[in-house]
Amino acid sequence: MADKTDVSGIKVMVIDDSNTIRRSAEIFLAQAGYQVLLAEDGFDALAKIADHHPDLIFVDIMMPRLDGYQTCALIKKNPKFAVTPVIMLSSKDGLFDRARGRMVGSDEYLTKPFTKDSLLKAVSEYILLREQR
Fold first, then answer.
1. What are the chain's domains?
2. DSSP secondary structure code for residue 51 in this structure
3. DSSP tag of 44
4. CB 124: neighbour CB atoms within 10 A?
């Protein structure tokens, strides 16, 4: 019998200015049993992060007002959330974008459009890492 981790208490936040991306991610994650938090930009996200303490955060790079790099940097500068994994989402798959994401503290980089499998794989890898600590 396969070892199945209970994910029901795990909160995953998706920050993206695209309603389509947010809804797709919400459906994929909710079907897998995760609690899903949605934010449409960095400012919206920062307030929700403080209130809900997500276990994992996906953040789009290209957003108005506060982009993904700025949002990630602000999350990682807060001692309460410095260890919270942040995965950058982008339609650009360049080395520069990945390096810039690492420089602001992102843990991973997922290219859009993502599939259900790639999204869930990214979540499960970070949840396993957290449980091993």
1. 11-125 (3.40.50.2300)
2. H
3. H
4. 14
**Cβ-contact 37, 54 below 8 angstroms:** yes
Its pTM stands at: 0.93
Closest CA to 68 of 51, 52, 50, 91: 91
Q: Under a CB-based contact definition with an 8 Å cutoff, are residues 87 and 121 in contact?
A: no
Q: What is the pLDDT of residues 30-67, one digit of tens each?
A: 999 999 999 999 999 999 999 999 999 999 999 999 99
**Residues near 79 by Cβ (< 8 Å), separated by ≥ 6?**
none
Backbone angles phi, psi at 5, to 5 degrees: -75, 135
From edge to edge, which strands make up the β-sheet containing 108-111?
Answer: 35-39, 11-15, 56-60, 86-90, 108-111
Residue 50, token pair as written in the block: 């403080």
Q: In the numeric block, which tokens belong to residue 133?
A: 């600590």
